[in-house]
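Predict structure. Chain length: 362.
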Amino acid sequence: MAFPVQFLCRAVRTVGLVLFYYVFSIGITFYNKWLMKGFHYPLFMTLVHLTIIFCLSTLTRKAMQCWTGKPRVMLNWTDYLSKVAPVAMATALDIGLSNWSFLFITISLYTMTKSSAVLFILFFSLVFKLEEPNPYLILVVLLIASGLFMFTFESTQFNLEGFIMVLLAAFIGGIRWTLTQVLMQKAELGLQNPIDTMYHLQPLMFMGLFPLFLFNEGLSLSSSEKLFRVSELSPLLYSLVTLSIGGSLAFCLGFSEFLLVSKTSSLTLSIAGIFKEVCTLLLATCLLGDKMSNLKWMGFAVCVCGISLHVGLKTYYSKGRGHSFRQISLKHSPDLELPLLHQKQDEGESSDNNDENQDVEL
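Prediction complete.
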């Protein structure tokens, strides 16, 4: 009876962590879309989010330092500007363009177009030799590209400007995640912990996005009655509160992703991401009235098949190689243990479960 009970507990825990991840991942998408209806300053919103994430990650680092009794990593200026800056610039542009696109396109088109980031991640992984080329990748690219074409073909809710923004964000996202992967795998930097990575990225992201904000929104925001020319206190407080909620959601999203991977596996996060796209499209159709024709659903299905094939191939090849270059062992990295993630190992727990929970593919 011990085995069924243990299996049931692990299943309930996994479902709970996936739902926890869904709340913040889907929630921030709809929240930003809702906020953009009345607050047309996406770049300023992103800057506020970056500030909040930096403050929360700083507080988390302090809590982790008190918990472990060890000082947190602090990079020198040479490594910070040469190795962290490219990741920060790519991340800032990816998030900024994604939020900006909400002014023009629907959530369904945003979700579908952003999923094409897999193509660019594959491309840059091959360029940086993080992924081994194989003939199946051609099929993955064709399926995702075909699905995206079918989804946007003769769409009545299509907006070219917003579509280009999301597509550019997906392209930059490919650079972002590839460089982030390389950055977090450099053991000498000590940025294996996502909280430390978030802490170091936010200031450079803010400085990289700030000139673009000044050029596009600086003048109009300075004359806006919602912030700088406010005549009453209540509208100002409302804007600050709504922006702060979005920043807190962004921080919690990153934390929920790490929590899900650390307690289950990277495969669980990948599969959960596929079903998250389905849930997002269904909610956009039901709640916001996004129009989904049969051709759109077919294109989405084709794209999901391509992403699923990619996940399956990565799982197959990673098992064949054992511990690949793209994996980091939590077993030998106590620095990755957060207070909320720390737990004692039961003596009766099998070694197979340990192996599954301790390998995180970043």
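Summary: Residues 15-361 form one domain.
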